[in-house]
UniProtKB/TrEMBL annotation:
Protein family: Belongs to the class-I aminoacyl-tRNA synthetase family.
Domain of life: Eukaryota
Protein name, entry field: leucine--tRNA ligase
Amino acid sequence: QEYIGLRCKVVDWSARAKTVISTNNSLPSNADVFMIPATLRPETMYGQTNLFVSYNISYGIFKVSDTVFYLATDRAARNMAFQGIFPDWGSVPKVMEIKGVDLVGTAVRAPLSARDVIYVLPVDTIKPTKGTGVVTSVPSDSPADHVTTLELFKKAAHYGIDPQWVCQDILPIIDTPEYGNTIAPTLVKKLKINSPKDERQLAEAKELAYKVGFYQGTMVYGPFTGMPVQEAKTQIRQQLLDSGDAFIYCEPDGPVTSRSG
Ligand code: ZZB
């Protein structure tokens, strides 16, 4: 599987992250730390509203250069070590660990997002065996992201988050003949999905959203407005790679069950 890893620069750590980082004392004071969501949909990056991390995952911060550090799971870093992303091929330059729960409320700048800064929120649907364990939320085009956003806002107190961190914007990015210009909310209504726990319907909605967006979608936001998604996807991906805002991150095939956290 070939993802792109998006470099989302931390602009303000959550209070808990600040404590963990200063106690740990192994990041230089001038460090730029980037959280790295893995995505297959670069064309939707304009509509990013939040980053999701898992409560239960412990993340690593890895050294890329004297001042640049990436945040992802250990598993993702082990893969990155063999893709020329870190300085020494095959070695994992781990500097410190931080739990997902401590990252919640951190503000990041996400490349291409229409929002200036977006906030990190906790979810429990992230699979530790896929991607980087960090997910960027696009509620206009990802049904799961849309229902998760609604749930987090509705039950902010329960999840221990400030409702102001939940970005409720749904920006039209892709227009489709059948499902309009915000495909995820349309599908969520149509399939009567009420909660992030409706796994079966969400899987169906996800597949439909992928297919319809890719084959029938036209961009309605950004410099590629009017272009079919099939063409714009390649161009936006290339633009992100050329600007250095993203890099290619691949995962080997094979049973994920044989590899641990
Ligand atoms: C932004 C985005 C926008 C995504 C969209 C999807 C959609 P797949 O096809 O199953 O490989 N993702 C990445 N890592 C994880 C993880 N560890 N656990 C759970 N979800 C994860 O899924 C790849 C997509 O799943 C990635 O692309 C990421 O969300 C999420 F409009 O990034 B995506 C209809 C989907 N639309």
